[in-house]
Automatic annotation (TrEMBL):
Keywords: Hydrolase, Membrane, Transmembrane, Transmembrane helix. Pfam families: BD-FAE. The keyword Hydrolase applies. One of its GO terms (molecular function) is hydrolase activity. InterPro entries: AB_hydrolase_fold (IPR029058), BD-FAE-like_dom (IPR049492), GDXG_lipolytic_enzyme (IPR050300). The gene is lipM. SUPFAM superfamilies: alpha/beta-Hydrolases. This is Esterase. It comes from the Bacteria. It comes from Paractinoplanes rishiriensis. The chain crosses the membrane at residues 41-60, 67-88.
Length: 389
């Protein structure tokens, strides 16, 4: 057995363990463990294929009648079985989004979607496509217009637009905020499969930067998020938008911003200099979001502090293996929202999913995209009703 092959097996085994048993760790090492585990958790088929290929090459050169040859076959088996378990956990989630929608919206929720909005909604996941080609995150039928200023704060006050190359008009607006713990992140990296899919379906999608720590603290980034909504209301029509229909979304702390904006519509404390601009939203989406305080001694610095009966419809998605934002936090926030709001809150918990499960166009990423598209279609079909029943 060659040292190179042994090293590759050990690396494969360690990475598979990170995917199977994610743990909360801090520092550079913890970040590395998270990134490796997240990647293997999202791409088990590719990792399995590489492992089998490496083992096959080693077997072709080994003498299987000797102990070294037998070890060549046996050593990678635990890792390959582990990757099979990772894939099995992912496939267990295929029917979870639909069940979550039915639990809150009723078993006939699809029938309640306007036929014009329901046309083209995906009901099945193309398994071969998402398992074998998860890196295709962009589309040729979508135009990206980058680095548009929505305020005067330099590159942190820039946004990107995504729209169909057909240049449609009357497009609903979907505003997205990136994650990064308020210390990092950028508008052009995250949730790209979601933004490109919606743009190809006639949405005007906006992905925005915002000020980060230490240059900004609460409520600066909330103010920035509301400025993006205000910009969409004032300038969206220049790019074919109908800003009367506007959803906000975000992943990780972007989910914090999306829900905070949704729950504080037209709140003057968070709209300095633009208090007369309408910042209400049609609905909100949170992807593996952090919804707690950002300032320990400021009670109002969490979205939950602003829950109220007139909160808009919302969809929250979280993975039950999230090592960055514990799933229990998302459960508690969803329960609190449901207890207060007259509008529906759909909470979807994907089995085996880690943080950033929608980064690739993977199985879980596709499930999330399809549920978001279906949820927004349902909300748009019912938005003129004063409350749901």
């Amino acid at each position: 057995m060659s040292p190179g092959y042994l090293s590759s097996v050990l690396v494969l085994s360690a990475c598979t363990a990170c995917a199977l048993w994610p743990a909360r760790r801090s520092g550079v090492f913890g970040t590395g463990v998270y990134l490796v585990g997240m990647t293997y958790n999202a791409l088990p088929v590719l990792a399995f294929t590489l492992g089998v290929a490496s083992t096959s090459l080693a077997m072709a050169r080994a003498d299987l009648s000797r102990i070294g040859g037998l070890l060549t076959v046996l050593l990678p088996l635990p890792a390959l079985v582990g990757l099979g378990l990772v894939l099995l956990r992912a496939t267990r989630g295929i029917h979870v989004p639909g069940a979550a929608m039915a639990q809150v919206l009723g078993p006939g929720w699809r029938a309640g979607i306007d036929s014009r909005l329901g046309t083209g909604l995906r009901t099945r996941v193309p398994l071969a496509r998402v398992l074998l080609m998860p890196f295709l995150r962009r589309r040729g039928d979508v135009e990206r217009i980058g680095n548009i200023a929505y305020a005067g704060g330099g590159r942190r006050h820039r946004l990107d637009l995504y729209r169909s190359r057909q240049r449609r008009t009357g497009c609903p607006v979907f505003v997205h905020f990136h994650g990064g713990r308020f210390v990092s992140g950028a508008k052009n990296r995250e949730s790209l499969p979601l933004l490109y899919r919606l743009a190809s379906r006639g949405w005007l999608c906006i992905s925005a930067n915002y000020r980060l720590y230490p240059q900004a603290r609460f409520p600066d980034y909330v103010v920035d998020a509301k400025r993006v909504v205000a910009w969409a209301r004032e300038h969206g029509h220049e790019y074919g938008a109908d800003p009367a229909v506007l959803f906000v979304a975000g992943n990780s702390v972007g989910g914090y911003l999306a829900t905070f904006v949704a729950l504080t519509e037209n709140h003057p404390a968070y709209q300095p200099g633009f208090t007369r601009t309408d910042t209400s939203v049609t609905g909100a989406v949170g992807l593996y979001g952090y919804y707690g305080r950002t300032e320990a001694d400021v009670a109002d610095s969490s979205p939950q502090a602003h829950l109220h009966a007139a909160a808009p419809p919302a969809l929250l998605l979280h993975g039950d293996r999230d090592s960055v934002v514990p799933v229990q936090w998302a459960r508690e926030f969803a329960a609190a929202w449901t207890d207060v709001s007259e509008q529906p809150l759909v909470y979807t918990e994907l089995p085996g999913a880690q943080h950033s499960f929608d980064y690739f166009d993977s199985l879980r990423g596709r499930l999330a995209v399809d549920q978001i598209e279906a949820f927004t279609a349902w909300v748009r079909s019912h938005r003129d009703r004063p409350a749901w029943s």
